[in-house]
Amino acid sequence: MSSELQKMVLSRFLSFYEKDIEAEIIDADNVVLSFPVHFSGYHRVEVTVTRLTPDRFVISDGAKVLEELRKAGYAATSKLNSRLETISKAAGIRVVHEHLVSESSLSDLGSQVQRFIEAAKSIGDAYLVQRSAPQRSLEIFNLVSAFLQSKQVPYQRKHTLRGKLENHVIDFYFPPNGVPGLALSVMSNPSRMAAEAWAFKSFDIRQVNERTQVGVVYDSTEASPSSKSILSEIADVSVPSSDIGNLQAGLESIGILKPA
Amino acid sequence: MQRPKFTPYQVDELVQVLKVAGRTVSRAEVRRDVTFPLRIALHRADSPGKDLSLLFEGKVPQRTLDGVPSTQRPSVSLLWFNWRIRGLDWTIKHEVIRNGIPTGEVIRGWHEHYWTEADGGDAIREPREQPKNSNLAALLEWSCEHWNIQGLDGSLRLFV
To answer: Does B146 touch chain A (CB under 8 A)?
Structure first.
């Protein structure tokens, strides 16, 4: 009886699996298969199988997994690629031009496709689900924008400012115009490390732009005492998001806003 | 990852209103084997000076592997504060999800991503009309018509 149940379950499962796999046949030696295996966002794992010789096959993902990583905000840096290679090495997969690639003989083709699918899913899930860097807080941006608009202060968004070592993208930039300029950043995740990185950025900006001061509006609910201390020490204008009204005093101290 | 508090109504209003193409944020190009997308800032036609943080993005397929043909198609999206609020994409098969759960429906080929409170930009539906072709120019034409954008035609020269 149990053997009969096993056969019935397996047969139903395999029948479903077979029916749910979709294919796009490119030519006699290339086929793309879409498996009912999903990574984050319900993306199906798609695998291209190419027959090189009757006994040699190339399995690849059409750069889909890394493309999804980029859509989720991960830059395809050499560091990321080398980490992915470490993960996929166990499954015999290489990363070539953003494609996950594996080779197989005819006899291993079934098991190699299975290993490939599992590795692709692991990579997609691991990176898409456990995103460490939070998105910039839209609310703080809106808060600062609304404040500046209410004060009718002209500013530039996403302005690139040259530093001595590198260029920096500034969230809100007030060019010097009779009064000193201000490079104002929004920090939604003011960890100690982020505050230290911001301090480096400030030093670099100041070295080249003598007439520009630096400021920051940070998420007060996320800031630790040490990061608050770094930000208030380094910045000419340091404003917690819970007290956005202080931005007025900061802008007045530079001369961008006239005292009421 | 915290999703922004856009409501579908705000998003629908933004999609329905007439928009004009502004500056080109990045050209579609291949750098160090990575294909970067075309990105163009969009503004409301009734207030073209106001920054909406709204981008049109057009992606061409990644470079293919030598000897392995690709079935990838280009895709287009509208990004609001870097979140996809609309998109047109092609896959062999894509499950429809609602509230994070697959409904059992599937869409094959072209599908449109739209914004819902529960699923963000992962929600998909059949496009009202299929694009006329599978190249970026055809998708651009489709986007102008269905997402109410003017002036993207001048960006054709920015393709790879």
So the answer is: no
* List of chain B residues whose C-beta atoms are within 8 Å of the C-beta of residue A48: 68-71
Domain boundaries, chain A: 2-129, 138-254
| pLDDT in single tens digits along all 260 residues of chain A | 578 999 999 999 999 999 999 998 888 999 999 998 887 667 888 999 999 999 999 999 887 887 776 665 565 666 676 777 777 777 788 888 778 899 999 999 999 999 999 888 888 776 654 444 444 566 788 888 888 888 888 888 888 888 888 888 898 999 888 888 999 998 887 888 888 888 888 988 988 888 899 999 988 877 888 888 888 888 999 998 888 888 888 888 888 888 76
Q: Give SS3 for A181.
A: strand
What is the pTM (predicted TM-score) of this model? 0.62
CA angle A61, B28, B121 (to 5 degrees): 60
The class that CATH gives domain A2-129 is alpha beta
ipTM, 2 dp: 0.72
What distance in Å separates the CA atoms of residue A30 and residue A46, rounded to the nearest whole number? 13
CATH T-level assignment (fold) for domain A138-254: Trna Endonuclease; Chain: A, domain 1 (3.40.1350)
CB A117, CB A35: distance < 8 Å: yes
Facing residue for B62 by CB, picked from A32, A67, A135 = A67
Decide if A60 touches B, using CB distance below 8 A. yes
